[in-house]
Amino acid sequence: MEKTPENVSQQAAAAEAPLKLLGSWASSYTHRVQLALRLKGLEFEYAEEDLGNKSDELLRLNPVYKKVPVLVHGGRSLPESVVILQYLDDAWPHIRPLLPSDPFDRALARFWCHFADDKLGPAVGAVFASTGSEQEAAVRQVHENLALIEAELREGAFKGRRFFGGDEVGILDVVLGCGSYWLAVFEEVMDGVRLVDADAFPLFHAWLRGFEALDEARDTIPPVDRLLGYARGVRHMLLGLAGAGDGAAAPTAAAEATAPVPAPAATDIAVDI
Amino acid sequence: MWASPMVIRVEWALRLKGVEYEYVDEDLANKSADLLRYNPVTKKVPVLVHDGKPIAESTIIVEYIDEAWNGGYPIMAADPYERAQARFWARYAEDKVRALYAIFSTTSEAQRKAAHEAQQCLKTLETALEGKKFFGGDAVGYVDIIVGWYAHWLPVVEEVCGVSVVTDEELPLLKAWFGRLLAVDVLKAALPDRDRLLAANKARREQVLSA
Predict the structure, then answer these.
(1) Within this chain, do residues B127 and B188 fall inside the same structural domain, yes or no?
(2) Nearest residue of chain B to residue A83 (CA atoms)
(3) What is the tens place of the pLDDT at every residue in A101-140?
(4) What are the boundaries of the signal sequence (chain B) (predicted)?
């Protein structure tokens, strides 16, 4: 489609159309979109989905995957968080771009976003869904994946940077950041599992602290005690353990865990990276 | 690697842009030092090296080619929503590719199920073709490049495995698109020889059956 005066103004008008996000409070994929919208300063309506009882609206807007997040813009729906993030850049190119402008840097950012979702995320999910030697193998896998990212921070594509996006956060910060908080939460829920060691992954650790200190990240990421409660509930459900977990968190966790979902696959749990 | 659909995607993108390139065939059982250096993370082909800089992941390489040679043939649409749709369907196709491989690696009842599942996935994908000649509209676009390999590979798999997946009855739009895609000269020129592909797949299928 050529950029004629007519469709430039169509695009401008489209940019003004209202935004609505269907999401789930514990879904890091949802957080990515919320964070990106906040970074871009875009107002949006938020609708919380009960993943155990999905709304007709969600099923209609994302018939292929039936998952959150789904962004609705000017009546058109967009599923898949990384697709949505790139859409936000395409539709609002002049506001705080999430992707760099150079094609090679863009390819790098996309590569590592793909790595986060294709390799790191499932590995973390596998740790959470397993025990014993299976879990040990999954933990090793997570460490291998983090080591690759650490290497890029130390001497590779992201050497010397404050954020993956440079001085400011970019798409990879959003993708990795919204999910990496689960690492510390899982460590707390599962005794003896070390996922993100500050000694083993100093640069990744420092980056994560920097990311979590951002105002927009603090506004987006739920409080740790809620995440802990949720994670405990999911862990119990995954392992088929009956009864309460630890102290006060247990009733909430049990409620949130029993409300929805039949046994989720590791990749289905909102506790993704 | 001569028989890799992922490699074909990249070749198609380069050829549509009219970009000259050197092709280096990799023996995946004996990967070159270059490949391991250029793609240490996944160690897979394809890798495009441009001005000494490596790019990996075929779906990402194709977008890179479109952006690096942005004056040439438009692979991605200009409209943000259409671009999002294209990226979505590419993601879907990658997500479901296991359903296609499963036909090849199974037999009897398991294979019937695999063929049926593959058909369901393709039917979902087919919705993106409605009212259009190509996924990209009137001309080949991003999604065509990403899933176009089906047009050449699936009939080979069907023949080798003795199954029918893409039929006029079940997937009329996709079947018609197969024909249109394979008629595009630029794309046709880059495809591996069908007989060679057939022989290679027959050999692999025999390994599966005897396992």
Answers:
(1) yes
(2) B84
(3) 999 999 999 999 999 999 999 999 999 999 999 999 999 9
(4) none
Task: Please provide the average confidence, as pLDDT, over all residues in chain A.
Answer: 87
**CA distance to partner chain B, nearest, from residue A170 (Å):** 17
3-state SS class at B73: coil
Please give the residue range of the domain that contains residue B31. Answer: 5-68
The model's pTM is 0.90
Q: Answer with the one of B13, B35, B68 that is the final residue of a domain.
A: B68
Between chains, do B88 and A115 touch, taking CB under 8 Å as contact?
no
State the Cα–Cα distance between residues A157 and A176, nearest whole angstrom: 16
Sequence-distant contacts of A151-156: CB under 8 A, at least 24 apart: A152/A112, A153/A203, A153/A204, A153/A207, A154/A203
Separation of alpha carbons A246 and A170, rounded Å? 37
Torsion over CA: A198, A201, A206, A209 (sign): negative
Which of B91, B98, B120, B138 to substitute to test the interface with A, most A CBs within 10 Å?
B91
Most B CBs within 10 Å, among A76, A83, A101, to test the B interface: A83
Residues A143-161: tens digit of each pLDDT: 999 999 999 999 999 999 9
Backbone φ, ψ for residue A228 (5° rounding) = -60, -45
Nearest CA in chain A to B66: A103
Q: Do A1 and B50 touch (CB under 8 A)?
A: no
List chain B residues with CB under 8 Å of A77. none
Task: Give the model's confidence band at A268: pLDDT under 50 very low, under 70 low, under 90 confident, else very high.
Answer: very low
pLDDT on residue A241:
61
B91 located within any domain? yes
User: Rounded CA gap, A79 and A51, in Å?
Assistant: 15
Please, what CATH class does the domain formed by A17-91 belong to?
Answer: alpha beta
Name the residue in chain A with its Cα closest to that of B75: A1
CATH architecture assignment, domain A103-219: Up-down Bundle (1.20)
The answer on B112 and B200 residing in a single domain is: yes
Domain boundaries, chain A: 17-91, 103-219
For the stretch A78-99, pLDDT in tens is 999 999 999 999 999 999 999 9
Interface contact flag, A103 B68, Cβ < 8 Å: yes
Whether residue B78 and residue A1 make contact (CB cut-off 8 A), yes or no, is: yes
* Residue B75 located in a structural domain: no
CA distance A89 to chain B (A): 9
B74 lies in some domain: no
The answer to whether residues B89 and B190 belong to one domain is yes
Q: What is the CATH number of the domain that holds B25?
A: 3.40.30.10
Per the structure, how many domains does chain B have? 2
